[in-house]
């Protein structure tokens, strides 16, 4: 079906459109405007049917349930902030332990698998990629297009 | 809004602005109030687009979660009703596209001039069918419409949205919306007058 953005493009279309709109206005005003014109009667019946509520509806508690869902993340945010704090504390403790005692056990890693792995650039690149992806996802969710 | 600019006097009385501010402040009950105000609009758009009640409920929920997440991006450039309607429409559209459901009718044989030739002024609708049967025929014909036609018709007739409001929600040009309304109603008239017939 072609849709003309310059509608109506003919007198016939303009006339039919006017009948459709008169029928809608009559239906909304509760007037029976169909006595003289059968096309007006058809369009008025159409307007009545189209103004009826849909056969299915949202559950009565829909608004409350959805509002509860967005209220819950306040607790979730607190939990994730606490987790981030715990993670940072553990990272700091690990760094402090490495600084204090590292001289004793870091040389032992050099010959082992972990030491060999840490000397390669790709595990660091992989970790950086994962971190950037996670950060960009969070940014996109907050500031990206609405849908 | 720029903090250095005092609010426009008309802004103070704007219920949309008050509601949005309350939701962004996290005022108790504000988001539930917003949902109650616009759930009918979202339901009309989404249910008419997807027609499947369970999917429509899920998509309505997704719409309001998205609204909550993005409300800070709302700039009052359009009415809140149009902005929320636009989110609902986009979510339903994406759902249909994922399911590869055609959005518009593509019949080439039913354009307006031929439809206008097929309808007459002498048809006695009630004499032919009776009001209840005509309504039943109409419901079946509306169900058989393509999603966009069905939604535009519902927004205009049931939601009583104006053509500029429908344009803001759907992103279609106003002339295209008028054309959709005109052709769809003409098509329904022809179905009602028994010239096309529809399975009931």
Annotate the secondary structure layout.
The complex is a heterodimer of chains A (147) and B (200).
Chain A: H1 11-29, H2 38-50, H3 62-71, H4 73-110, H5 113-119, H6 122-143
Helix pairs in contact in A: 1-2
Chain B: H1 9-12, H2 15-25, H3 30-50, H4 53-70, H5 80-98, H6 112-118, H7 125-128, H8 131-143, H9 147-157, H10 163-170, H11 174-192
Helix pairs in contact in B: 2-3, 3-4, 3-5, 3-9, 4-5, 5-10, 6-11, 9-11
Structure in words:
The complex is a heterodimer of chains A (147) and B (200). Chain A is mainly alpha-helical. Chain A is built from 6 helices and no strands. Chain A folds into 3 domains: 11-50, no CATH class; 62-102; 110-147. With 200 residues, chain B is mainly alpha-helical. Chain B contains 11 helices and no strands. The radius of gyration of chain B is 20 Å and the shape is elongated. In chain B, 37% of the residues are buried. Mean pLDDT of chain B is 84; it is low at 1-12. The interface between A and B is large, with 50 and 71 residues.
Order of helices and strands of chain B: HHHHHHHHHHH
Helix content of chain A: over 70%
Please outline the major beta sheet of chain A. Answer: none
CATH topology name of the largest domain in chain B, in short, is Rna Polymerase Sigma Factor, Chain: A
Amount of beta strand of chain B: under 5%
Q: Using CB atoms under 8 Å apart, which protein chain pair has the greatest interface? A: A-B, 50 and 71 residues
CATH architecture of the largest domain in chain B: Orthogonal Bundle
Count structural domains of chain A: 3
Order of helices and strands of chain A: HHHHHH
- Class from secondary-structure proportions of chain A: mainly alpha
Total number of β-strand segments of chain B? 0
Name the assembly state: heterodimer
What general outline of chain B do the C-alpha atoms trace? elongated
